[in-house]
Structure formats: C-alpha cells, structure tokens
Amino acid sequence: MFIRLLLPSVAVLLFLIEPVFAKFSPIEMFDQMIYLVPRFLFMYLLFLAVYYDRKKSIIYGIVFGLLYDVFYIDIIGLYAVLYPLLCLFMSKIVTYIQQSLPIVTILTVIFVALLEFLIYEFFVLISFTSMQMGEFVLLRLVPTIFANLLFLVLLGWIFKYFIKTRKLQSV
C-alpha cells in the first residue's frame, strides 16, 4: 500500500517545497538581480515519463499544472498545458535514445530550459513582462538551469530509484 502512494507523495512534497526554495530568489550578484526558479516537480514529472509511465506523468502534469496555475500564477491553463505536453514530448524522445541517468538528466535540463523559455514568451505575448531576451537569458534562464541541474545531480538518482521501485512493485 505504501508503495502505491510513493509516487504521488513525492510529487506533492516537491510541489510544496518549490516555494520554499523560491524564497531564496532573487539573489544580488555583481550588481544584478539573478532569479533562480526551482522546477523540482517538473523534473520529477519528466523522470516519471521516462522511467515509469507516460500516461501517469501526463495525468500528474495536468493535475499539478492546474494546481500550480491556481496557487502561484493566477493564469489558469499555462502550466496545466505545458507540463503534460512537455512530458509527452520527453517520453516520445526517449524511445529513440538510451535511458541512462546522465542522458535523461541532460534532456531534463533542456526541457527545463524549454519550459522557462515558453513561459517567458507567453508572458511577453500578453505584456506581463518587459524583460528583454538578453536579460532573461542572462539573469533568469542560465541561473535557473544551473540551480536545477545541481538539484538534479544531487537527487536525480533518488527520483529514478523511487520510480523504479514503484514500477517493480506494479509488475
């Protein structure tokens, strides 16, 4: 019974700790404000798409994307569409390549960058931000990628372990 609740429990935990880590942002460095955006839940959903089940990752993506929209940004549908869509793309891509942890880690970081870029472009489209592309890349995208890569290098193997444990239990 506990194993059945493991995957959603980890997702809920990551959903709840993202704002805690977001409080460390922005950081002032070199007279610039640098933004670090934690994407722990999204990276976990990508790992679910690769190592467990595409369908469940898409369902979790819709549910947690909608929760993210409601609680954090007040624009209903942005994350509820992007999370499952990017999980679907990730699961399709890994069918053609090896699913080793280093490769999945690199792909996950690329997808985090893609998510950040799509969100930025949406905010530019609706005139929600006035940040220029160069500023965005230098002050938000690159620091976000490095911060999430650090998190993934430290905890990616744990994600894989939890997911593989659940997959073995369901067989």
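(ticket continues) Second input and output from the same batch:
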Amino acid sequence: MKRWQTAMVQVCLICFFFFWAAVSAYCQRINLSVNAGEAFDRFGALPQQSGPEAVFDGEGIVLKSPDKNFGADVLAGFEVRAPLDTNNHANEIAVYGGVGFHVRKNFEFGFHGQVHRIYLPPSTVDGQVFNRARLSLVETPAFVQYKFGPDRHAFVRAEGAPEFSPRFKEPAGNILLNPNLDHGYYMRGSVGYNFGMFYVKGTYETRYFKFRITSGNPNDLYNWRSGMATGGVGITF
C-alpha cells in the first residue's frame, strides 16, 4: 500500500471513532457498523479484479421528530471503504446529511446530500502504468427502509442515486485531459436483524460509471463497473 493510501485509511479510522465519541453528544440515536466482504472491479475491457474490503459506516439522528407515527428526522452519517489491495480497488470516503420520513414504526424513506471522494487505482496496460485522477462527487441518494417480524427487529433497505459529473484531481505528471461523464448510477440493498443494542446486516451494491470516448479516456480505462458484497455487525446507542 502506498504511503498516502495508508495515511488516508488511518485518517478514516480516526474519523470513525471521532464520529462515535463526539457526535454522540448531539445525536439522539447512533448506528455504527464494521463490515467485511469482497469488492469486484472492472475498468474498460480489462479483466475483472476481486479482493477483500472493509467498510466502516455510521448514521445518527441529529434531530428526532416528536411524532412517532408520522414525522421527519434530520440525519448525518459517513462511510469509509478500505480495500486490502489498493492497486486494483478504490479507497473511498463519504459524508452526508439528509432527512428521513417515517410512517408508523415500520416504514421510512428519505434522501441525502452526500460528498464522496474516490481514490481510483492505477492500471497497467502493455507495460505502461495508467494513473487515474481522484474523483470528488456530490450525490443525492434516496432510500427506503422497512422493518418487519416480531417487534419489527428484521429490516430491509434499498438505496440508490444517479451519478453527476465529478470533479477531477489529476495525479502528478498527468498529461491526459479529464474525461467527460456520459452517465452513472449506484444501487444498494441491505437486509439485517436488530438484537437490541447490536445488529447484523448483509449488503450488496452495484455501481457503474461510463465516460465518453475522448483523449481523456483512452481505451475506455475510466469506464468503471464495480460490485461489493459485505456482511457486518453494528451497535446502536
């Protein structure tokens, strides 16, 4: 792992524990989870690469509605992705704020405003290293969640968003123009069970970025199709 990538993971872990310690003083409920699984990435026509990945995430209710049947909660959260193999998979960090509308005690829907940074890995083609730019994105995910079963302890959640044109941070010495986004999206589904203070969940995500064929996207090497399957355990307090 490169020095800057190691430093980023360390900073992300610090953010994880800072969120736990500091935000808990202001939030009325916090969920934190640690997840592990497999990431699948394919750039252009290159072979798909897979490898282990850790995901840390948290969400807190900053302002809870007094109406337990119909109301809106103000939310804040983050997600950190740390792959073991950073030569083929991206380090990522995202922070967001949003609103969640609940109907009775078993259904919730809402949306987030999210800032997302992606450190794309390089690729080697015919002995030449292709260094991709770092992506900074503003995203607007929407989500729905449903609780069911005895005392509504089981839950399913779906989330997704279109991807808008990112801001690029070119690597040092890069002589390529920035590519132009054609379209992109991500979709994510989770299932889980709440045991009270602790919960477990499994998540699958698929994501796609397609860039136009330009000199900034040689051999479609910015076109990125990724997937992720993880399972984890969390704590609620």
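Agent notes: The first strand starts at residue 29 and ends at 43. The domain at 3-236 is CATH 2.40.128.100 (Lipocalin). Closing as not reproducible unless the customer responds.
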